[in-house]
Every structure is written in C-alpha cells, then in structure tokens.
Amino acid sequence: IGFFLHIPFPSFEIFRLLPRAWRAELIEGVLGASLVGFHTHDYTRDFLTSVLRTAGYEHQLGSISLPERVVKVDTFPMGIDFERFSRAATSPETELRATELRQKCAGQKIIFSVDRLDYTKGLIDRLRSYEFFLKTHPEWHGKVTFVISVAPSRTGVESYQAMKLELEQTVGRILGTYGDVHWTPLIYQYRNLSFDEIVALYRSCDVALITPLRDGMNLVAKEFIASRPDQTGVLVLSDMAGAAKEMGEALIINPFHTDDFARTLE
Description:
Layout: E1 2-4, H1 12-15, H2 20-30, E2 35-38, H3 41-55, E3 59-60, E4 63-65, E5 70-75, H4 82-89, H5 92-104, E6 109-116, H6 123-136, E7 144-151, H7 158-178, E8 186-190, H8 195-204, E9 207-210, H9 220-226, E10 234-238, E11 251-253, H10 258-265
Parallel strand pairs: 1-2, 2-5, 6-7, 6-9, 7-8, 9-10, 10-11
Antiparallel strand pairs: 3-4, 4-5
Helix pairs in contact: 2-3, 5-8, 6-7, 6-10
C-alpha cells in the first residue's frame, strides 16, 4: 500500500493539539501503508517527529521498523506535464490569444493569478495587498492591471459563499476607489478557464502572483514557468507553498505581510 499526502503535514506542536487517542489512531492508520510520501522534506520530517512522539517508533534514514514489517517514509515532490504546457505556449493559437490580451492592456504591466475558491489560497489577502500597493505607489496608477481568475469550488458550503461575497466586495472597493474611465486596475473572473485560456494568460502576463496562505505544493507556479519558453516574466511565490522549497529563484514573499507584498510587487 502506498499513501501520499498532497497537503502539508503539521509540525508536532500543532499535531499534539489533537486528543491523544486521535493522534495515536491517525499515526497508526497511516503506518498501515508500506510507503508513505509527502511533497517536501519539511513535511516528511514533521511526520517522522510525530511518529516518534506519538507512537515511539524511531526511523533509520526514513525506514520505520515495526514489529512485523518496515514502513518507508520519503519525499516525492509532485511535478507537471512540462512538455504539454511548453508546446501549448508556443502554438500559433496561444500566440494570437496572448497578443490580443497585450493589445487590450497596452502600456500596462499585467499581473495574473489563478486559483480555486478556497480559504487556503489567500485570495482576499492577495487583493488587499494589491490594494495597498496601489495606495502606496500612485505612480503605477494607469500602468498596471491585475487579472485574477477564481474557479468555483464547494458552491453549496455557506462559508465558501461568504468568502465569495467578501472577495467580490473587495474587488468592488478596489475598482471603485482606483478605477476610472481610462483605466481598470483589476479584472476579476469567477469561472473555470480552459487549458488554452490559462496558458495564454501565463504566456502574456508580466508577473504571476501565486500566494497561498498554505499549500502542499502548488502546481500553478510550475505551470507558469513551463509556459514561458522564452524565460521572460516573474514569479512571485508564497513561502507557505511547498513549491517555494524547489523554486528559490522566484521572488519569495510572506503572504501575511502586506508591506513585503507591496515592495515585492513594486
């Protein structure tokens, strides 16, 4: 049995907040697998620490010896189909879409982000930080456009509906405060984009803004890089995403720190 956890495994300081019996059941349950995998070394280390502190099992280079068998724990950072994105990015159709978008935003830097509606993605924090950037950098008014695409998710859950409402109120406030007849500082889309649409946006933007509050890996960051065969564009990436451990050449930010966010954007 192979078990892979695609979200972060918490540090023991957080894991220990669970009732003792729950902790033991969770650890023993995961150890029912022959191979346990995580995105980053940090998550693997945190799991092994929790195993030791909860069940008392030590490990040797990631191998845990149980009474009747051995469980192997290792790191397997998830990747993407690089060739698919790279090929699509250079297709005539993508070039046409990207050219049309650049013409619509002529004379402006294009910032782009795409995420599903989820509290871990930091969408509202991202918008507030962009708002702070516009407030503190008036010289960029009329020279930048933020295209933010949000994919519907868990539409029947009340807390997600409330989050969507707050998101749209924040979008409205930014447009109402800074937009005018000559300039739209923000383009908000609440729908699922097709593969071709996303690649064209990856291809045409100047900055990809990938700033989750917590993320196991985040493949959007990798998709953006794969869609830039000419190696142009800048990736602004949250240090709370597992991808930040692999993509140190990006501009790494703390998504909770508005000043840091605005300075990095500038």
